[in-house]
Write a structure and sequence with these properties.
360 residues, mainly alpha, 2 domains, two-stranded antiparallel sheet, 4 strands, 55% helix
Length: 360
Amino acid sequence: MPASTLNRIPFFQSTPSHLCQLVLDYKGDYDKYKILAELSLTHSHFKKLALQVLLQSVLDDRRKEVEEMLAINSGLLLLDPIELHLPPTQSQYTWQTFEVDHPLVIALVRNQVEMVKRILPPFLEATCSDVKLIQILWERADGIKAKQSEKTKQFNVEKLIQAIVAGNARKTVESKAGGDVSTNDPLETFRHLILPSEPVALTDYFAIEKLLIKAYLAYENNFYELNCDQRQEFSIQVVGYLQSLLAPEDAKIFCQGLEDVVRGKKPIEVGASVLRLRREPGVSFYRSSLLDQTGLGRSYLIGGMSGNTSAMRTSCVTGGRHPPVMQKLCRAKAAALENLKSQHALRDGSDASLISCVVL
């Protein structure tokens, strides 16, 4: 493993030199995730480093990496990232930066059903099937989700539409008068609110899936109040931007086709599983960087039908089909998590197969 690769990993610069050399001299054929998991069994410093990498993998829904690390050292789940003062974690897909929390809490709050399935078995192994810690973390996640739901409920998407209409009208008047167009862009304010540049605690964030549903409904309710330009602006810059903040588990469903997966029960194909649109395999779901001014939420949004870029602005009917499908997806994921909770709350070592309420 080249030093340049390791130097990009947080914590490496503060690692004692002899331990750095140990990593560089490692002769195994494992990748860095397995190496860190192995080394976390030997030195406390590498426990912190491995846990930080594990948090990154959970946040970005890298299921294989999580499985590999926990298969080697399930004890990483017994560590508390908050007590260890680990730095915030930034998703390399959505570019959201969150204050650290336990891997299980992150997966639960973000409704990552498949990730939770991969965390629970090694967690039970690490605790010797004592579910008390898992129950405590689950309750904490439920509390965070309740706060996020309340904050999302209070967000007024209708006012954002009004600001877009007023802003467009003001720009038109100022342009015709030959003056400078106002730079007080309500969409920019919105983007900074839901994707702040500074780290945010999960308790202070929004429930993005629910906020997306509110945006869909606002579009439908105000369709005939908007002109074509305003529909395009709202559907791409608001709906599309919210889509770009969905967790990768949801993004894969959109890449395959929201309605195809949720209503048609179609499985996620290879292209969609690597976050590329099924109908447009050359198009990536996420923007390439935090500062990228193109891509999802800037140039287009993802349609709910067949996994392709869309112009939802052209039809009120098309816009109206999204909310019930998203609501069904949210209900299915919530039911799947409840099933996991009830099954793993048993202390008799039952190995009953997990029930999946939606194809993910």
